[in-house]
Input
Amino acid sequence: MKARGTIIIMLLLLLLMAQIPWACSASNGTVVVETNPNLELFGVLYILAFNGSDPFIVAPPEYVKDVLTYFGPYKSHEAVKFVQTLVDKSLPQY
Output
């Protein structure tokens, strides 16, 4: 019975120790928000490929408009054409 109590105490200590890195990293009070550049690039290519009218584009309309305005000259780029080939045009939404 004493061994069981010792094991429980050890497990509780391990659980407590596992929380220490979280406590240390959260103590400085800063949060860093970043966007993965690869995902951002794919999002821009997708918006260009479908002229911002695809039902799967869930970005705010202002962002879509800004992307189309700023990157519009690159609509004929081979990367945009490649993204267009990734979607099956026989799907109901296309």
About this structure: The CA atoms of residues 47 and 57 lie 7 Å apart.
